[in-house]
Design a protein that fits this description.
This protein has 42 helices and 22 strands. It is of the alpha/beta class. It is found in: Cell membrane.
Length: about 1250
Amino acid sequence: MIYDLLGYFQLFRFATWVDIAMMVVGGVCALIHGSAFPLMLLIYGMMTNTFVAYELEVQELADPNKTCINNTITWTNGSVVEMADNRTVQCGVDIEAQMTMFAYYYTGIGLGAFILSYLQIALWVSAAARQTQRIRKTYFRKIMCMEIGWFDCNSVGELNTRISDDINKINNAIADQVAIFIERLSAFIFGFLVGFIGGWKLTLVVIGVSPLIGLAAGLMAMAVARLTGRELQAYAKAGAIADEVLSSIRTVAAFSGEDKETERYDRNLEEAQTWGVKKGIIIATFQGFLWCIIFLCYALGFWYGSKLVIDTKELTPGTLIQVFFGVLTGALNLGQASPCLEAFASGRAAAKSVFDTINRVPKIDCFTEEGHKLERVKGDLEFHNVKFSYPSRPDIKILDDLNLVVKSGETTAFVGPSGSGKSTVVQLIQRFYDPQQGMVTLDGHDIRSLNIQWLRSLIGIVEQEPVLFATTISENIRYSQPGVTMEEIIQASKEANAYNFIMALPQKFDTLVGDSGSQMSGGQKQRIAIARALVRKPRILLLDMATSALDNESEAVVQEALDKARIGRTTVTIAHRLSTIRKADVIVGFEHGSAVERGSHSELLERKGVYFTLVTLQNQGSDASNYKTNTSETSILEDDGFETMTSFSRGSSKMEDAMEATESAPVTRILKYNQPEWPYLLLGSVGAALNGSVSPVYALLFSQVLGIFSIADMDEQRRQINGVCILFVIVGIVSFFSQFVQGFAFAKSGELLTRRLRKVGFQAMLKQEIRWFDDPKNSPGALTTRLATDASMVQGATGSQIGMIVNSLMNIGASFIIAYYFSWKLSLVVTCFLPLIGLSGVFQAKMLTGFANEDKKAMEEAGQVSSEAIANIRTIAGLAKEQQFVDMYEKQLEPPYKAAKKKAQVYAIFFAFAKCVIFMAYAASFRYGGYLVTNEGLHYVIVFRVISAIVISGTALGRASSFTPDYAKAKIAAEQFFTLLDRVPRINISQAHGLKWTDFKGKIEFKNCSFTYPSRPDIQVLRGLGVTVRPGQTLAFVGSSGCGKSTCVQLLERFYDPDLGQVLIDEHPSHGVNVPFLRSQIGIVSQEPVLFNCTIAENIQYGDNSCTVSMEDVIEASKKAYLHEFVMSLPHKYETQVGAHGSQLSRGQKQRIAIARAIVRNPKILLLDEATSALDTESEKTVQVALDEARQGRTCIVIAHRLSTIQTADIIAVMSQGTIIEQGTHEELMAKKAAYYKLVTTGAPIS
């Protein structure tokens, strides 16, 4: 919780006087509405008295010698009948007339309640809708004028949740909950008033007991919170294991550790399970205790109350009931008011962050009118001693005393290693940030003094990853300059070399570019972005790596477009590729945040500084790519093919998602997983059945009490009262046990089911092939959450669900049997109202959960606008388009706002209906009851019995439907779970599947392999790779990063299968080989070795999961890896914990553990993927020696960045862009004087 909460009334700071008036009237209505039920109790009391009097009269008149004269019972001889205590007996009660009157009263109260509750809800909800609308608009507008630095410190996701969830929370805190809270408080006060007016002694006795009920509820809440914490903690351990395993899935797969990991996960689930069961037991105990107290409270109340009625005659039977129920409903309402407080608290917490943003003054406000606009702009930019660091990382200096001049009309190129501050300069020119020291000037004016919207309108920018908005091509170009004509758009697109490809599209300029431009290829997006920059005819053109993301062909086209565009403008270009820089007028070299050199291409080459190193490195690379030019034609064609493919797959994947979500799992299948727990389920159902019969029994006893008062003989009355009170006590004790049994049994079976599902789910995840994990939907985070929540949600669909169903069925069944057994006519009348009462229960339950879901749906479209705006804030700021997005957002808010106002009416009508239906039911049934009493001699006790039995069962029905944990959610969660369990992995890792053979030699052959990663289908990684390694040979791959070296290793491990071609192992194609068998022959040491959070010995033993590795073998392996001495120097030796991801060890130590782990399996093939690149020279020597020993007698594939490490290899293969451009031994390749020779002689790193 945020502690400095806002005061509650500050939530209403956006209310106008109309809203305030609406809320005041609504509040008054709620206050009056609260008194409806207590008022009804007064009438109920009067009615009871009428019935009792009538019954006494009937008993007296049963004696033929008595008649009724002047409303007093007299003997037939005319003398007045006197009772033992000299009382005369009243008579002549006209029960039907009385009942008609009561029915009118009831109907009146019902109508009043209808009108009042309608008003209270309609007024509060519409007032809240109006305020929320205002908050949303203000908040979004405020966000859009924040400076960019603020966005660096606030994540996009967080802002989106605030716009949607937090404002919804504020809405909940100022809407219907307030009205309901006022109504419940008022019901509490009036209930107690009715009690005190009727009889203060009984009221005090009942009040005295009620704190026990509150105490039980409070203790239960506390205990549940603490235990849930414990359970979550215990599960967090298992979750951490799942997370660790899923994030290092490649290592787990390489060492076939799936089963071992499942066991480790399951061991940790056990603890969570025990806490879960404990929580179940405690909740069950408290629930039982609560019900027990309530029934004991009834026993005490009726026993003491009957004393007051019979012995001291302070109360009439009617007042007894009125007092008793007045106090009870009062207490109940007070209890029900507390959930509203929760809504208020979360609303205040949410408002804190929202209102803080609304109150914040932006450092650079883009909506201000202030600042100069220059008459004419030359375009000279200068940086004077600029110091700068980003607000999100204030301790890292980005620019350090930067002095720089960009002359107008010239093209200035910035070069330098990444992180040297080139892009930062571009952002400062656009004034996304202000420098901490120094200043940036345009034509000699400090840009802080210029109007910001005007300044940005002078600048055209093309970024590395251009952002397009989800609309048409022409709209995207028009964004940069409102009001441009179609001719100008066409002109700009011609200048950007985009015209031809746009005209080739079926819809031409009206083609939708897809969400953030996803339907376009990189080159197409770039050219649209250039057209967008050119259409505003900018004075200053900023090109931030505008061509880096493109392939050669598109680069040439885009480059040409840029060269055209640069003429006569001040241009700043940042690029990594030399071809793009050569033509610049001035080249500025950056290093560590300052400009270290400046001059033309030839001048800088002579200086041999930053620029020189970049040039030499790139030339080696370009020779290799010249070697490939003959194949580039084909590759371009393929690329185009890929473009169209990806857009298709994008369309289809959305469809699949939609399909997945709709189905829900059959309950029978979930129950199958719960089968071993059937005794618990049975026991729980028995408990539930007993609980269900409690309410009907209560109806019987309650009506019995009313009947006792009409017995003439006082001693008989006392005897019966005592009997009924003892029955109440017995019911209380029974319900304690049955509640406990139901709660405990279902908790136990539920926790066992959750654990089983989690284990099965985890197993299923580990069975999937690696490409499944590349899908962002299956990121380790997403999967661990799925294990945590889905499994526990599924539990909601089984045990407790069965309990709820049994309970309700029993309740309704018993009530109906009782009612129809005693009087079927009256039961029929009451039953007519039952659907309505049940419905009102359902409505009330629904209202508590609110209409939140519908709101969410309606808000989604506005949410898309806001999230697109926030995610692309830089582009929007660069185009000065904030206002347009604010307008768009406000337009999107209209439909949900209208819907919310309509909903206020509908909701209010339903609420009012639910509130008044019970009064109407009473009016009709008691009126008809009165008719049956006079005309058919029905005992009035039965009238009460039937009505209370059915009404109670009706409300129970409504309650049951509300208390069920979200059943639909559980079914969907289950469905997702079963989809996972039923998925058939593309690469089967079972022991039974595929070839095995005995004399594994270790010959490897790549035959014309092509491959693309499924997550990036448009980038081809391998293009026809072919190379052979004979058993015992060492093959070394060299080449720049991204050329496909590591991919070969992954194909060999069968993490992926090649798209075309095959990998042969001992002449067998790899996709036919048994996967565990193949992986057991391969040892792998990668660049960043993944260690698990256990001891050193366990990490080494992980190398062979097929058997238990003895300590001797571990020591043997670690000696070979030069690890043994280091381990023996540690206090715990081999039992030392390595920490999460091996964080307790240095890199060299981790590397050597990984080598020992690979040696333990005694593999025939050893894969070393840059195994020493991360080490310093000292550790590298040690590790290198260890590796050289490990290579003896094994087939080995080495990937290395340092050439010194691979000179001894049998075959060296130089790779570039997914194929091998030359291969041979070190000597052969040196003699060739081609790519490899260049690499060795310059001694450059290859990445």
